[in-house]
Amino acid sequence: MGFYEALEKVSAGEFLNQEEIAVLLSTDDEQENRDLFTAACKVRNKCFSNKVFLYGFVYFSTYCRNKCNFCFYRAVNKSIRYRKSLKEIVDIAVSLKKSGIHLIDLTMGEDPYYLDRGKAGYDELLNIIKQVKKATNLPVMISPGTVSEKLLEKMKDSGAEWYACYQETHNLNLYNKLRPDQPYQKRYNSKLAAKENGLLIEEGLLTGLGENVYDIAASFYKMKELEAQQIRVMTFVPQKGTPMEQFSAHDNKMELKIIAVMRLLFPDRLIPASLDVEGIDGLKKRINAGANVVTSIIPPDSGLAGVSQSTLNIKDGWRTVQGVVPILQECGLAPASVSEYKNWLKNEEHKNAEENCGLRRQNARNRSCVFAS
Ligand code: SF4
């Protein structure tokens, strides 16, 4: 199948097979790329009108027990380490709310302080969610790494709506090279467990790590299987002091094509444009590829870091709502209201609950079949 046949098919609402996805991702033709992005934006605007959601990023602890080979914050790296106090976290969340964001994204490395001290650590972590919720009354996303089902359930009870946990790739060999000592299935299952406990989930990819277009197509199938409500891609930025420091950096072309193809395959999902790869300069391209969320908005005076570009555009104040809105306007878009975001969320939580009911009924049927035999 040729490029335009595949584009027509997916634009008509059909899911593509892996060959067809590969055709769309493989093009280097400028006109084909323009048509891909135009089709993606058309689909986005049909689902979300001209509205974009804005996420405030609170990377509240950069300590981590893991050794992911691509990550600046891997346990053994001499990187920026901090752990913000509860008061600092709440103050930052409140200032983000005042600036006009729709969600507080509470992110940490797998910090032993919270995850390896039993109840005392869990309670502190859960209290952060509760206090941020209480102070802002905004939706909360928690990104704590791989955690137990019990803790996920408590995070939901503490007020979190979202659980973000990225596989980065669904090619098992590549995954094992990127995330040593972190079983693939355990990480994947934590998302399933979160979903079953009523949390919405975000799955994510890194591109530029040596994957091919068939690996990316396979990831889209995994995202479909997970029914993740938010799906993201970021271009890998080689990090100083890591085993992948010398890895050659890629441009953003594949990231933009992935955003567009994700939008076409998953029209009504949330797809972020991250400020964490190219800062404010890269926002327009990502929005014009079909993204409908801006992530990694960070207050300039918060002392917080980003994940992949730890300092880019933070102190100069560009990773703020004020920095982002004029660019959205140039793209013919505007920030949604908080109530529009909350309505979207409510609707998704309702669908999630219905799916979980269906799943439980299915499990019950399977169990009764087993008992019958
Ligand atoms: S990617 Fe996350 S889990 Fe891996 S080392 Fe970095 S902070 Fe830790």
From TrEMBL:
Q: Does the keyword Iron apply?
A: yes
Gene Ontology terms for molecular function: 4 iron, 4 sulfur cluster binding; isomerase activity; metal ion binding; transferase activity
Looking at the UniProt entry, the stretches that span the membrane are: none
Binding-site residues for [4Fe-4S] cluster, renumbered to this chain: 64, 68, 71
Please give the SUPFAM superfamilies that the UniProt record associates with this protein. Answer: Radical SAM enzymes
PANTHER family in UniProt: 3-METHYLORNITHINE SYNTHASE, BIOTIN SYNTHASE
- Please state what the protein is called: Methylornithine synthase
